[in-house]
Amino acid sequence: VTDRESLKREAALRAVALVESGMVVGLGTGSTAWYAVEALGARLRAGDLTNVVGVATSRATEVQAEALGIPLGPLEPHGVDLAIDGMDELDSQLDAIKGLGGALTREKLVALQAKTFVLIGDASKRVSYLGEKAPVPVEAIPFAQRVVAAELAALGCTPMLRRDEHGEPLVTDNGNVIFDCHFDAPFEAGEVARACKAMSGVVEHGLFLGMADVAFVASDAGVLELTR
Amino acid sequence: VTDRESLKREAALRAVALVESGMVVGLGTGSTAWYAVEALGARLRAGDLTNVVGVATSRATEVQAEALGIPLGPLEPHGVDLAIDGMDELDSQLDAIKGLGGALTREKLVALQAKTFVLIGDASKRVSYLGEKAPVPVEAIPFAQRVVAAELAALGCTPMLRRDEHGEPLVTDNGNVIFDCHFDAPFEAGEVARACKAMSGVVEHGLFLGMADVAFVASDAGVLELTR
User: What is the per-residue pLDDT for B228?
Assistant: First the structure.
């Protein structure tokens, strides 16, 4: 049995194999995306790729990419050729929940500007419906947090303010807070997505619907390539 | 001819006259709202009002209110009895453009939780249609700014990144940037509002549609009370 970290790395390698010289590449955030950034750095160092620019979805990824010598640029409209990122949950339509790493807003912005958006992960992330295992993260401005919590609860979930290792409310790279919204039963993802985005004080939510073009899902049996 | 500042103050006094003891009062931001906060502090000091709690829409207003001894509290769901704020433009339906003071996101959050939302200003703010004189401010997260600028331009306006007195991009209390969107021709405000709110990377916009219950508009002829 292959361990979880090896599986993450295998999925990441498959995605990074799609990168070509001259591309602008969206660099995801989180433990699986970390392997992709590492592999991209290795291909650049090996001279296998040239003239690649990364767009980092978080401060953490920026730090990692800089250490690996990957040149970084700002997010431009329609300016990303290929975005690679991990997922917390993936259904059969390639709809996903993201945001466990706290970078959902920048991740979604980069994915939306990408010609091709690739999700990577191990098979434990596959679900029969979104919300089966993971909560839906929602980023909100701190001033609005009591109002947003009440409005999220009205959608039928239990919103939990995410905390850091010190028990303090986690602050995102954008200076905001995150509610992890736990649903007891399956929900209509499109409706929840629209309702969340319409709330004043909500910056973004972690439902990535109709966005991914490809997903690489690694299990002991190998890496499965899923397309929409 | 009464000067502009006196008119602002007269409108503010009319709004503050609506405050009753025990109320939670939304405290707006900007030069006209400043007079309202000042007048509220005076009524509290005079003992004319007791047990009033303010909810400040900006750090600047927080500082002013604290200096005046107005107790402040957080924004709670449906937790504001009366919100008082200035406007940049007001049409005959009491639809408004706000955000010249840079506090539009918190202002809208407070107004949305208010049982009664009162706008105040001098008569120069009245327009026959929104956008006649003022741009529509849109608050966006800095990482998204190039994308949001392109998407705003696609709505038919010219988005100008607001700058501070040093020429640097202005940073809001929420750590974001503001685009002042100049429209050359009248636009359908409801459509622009929906389109702005739907954009990833946009936190809030300055179109306050169907929100104000009352407006006090001061001119040389006196203070006009407008209701919807």
Answer: 87
